Amino acid sequence: MDINEFNESLEGLIKQAESLNAGETSIAWDYNNEWQVKIVVKRKRKKANKK
Prior knowledge:
Blueprint: H1 3-19, E1 24-32, E2 34-42
Antiparallel strand pairs: 1-2
């Protein structure tokens, strides 16, 4: 995978995460023989209305 392919796949992952209406999106990456990209999504929890 060259850097252009890497950037394109990264952009695709970011768009997917954004489409989930994520409350918070962060990207973690590390280099271990090959690039591994992890997108961590924290969803906003809706508070249940207790009556």
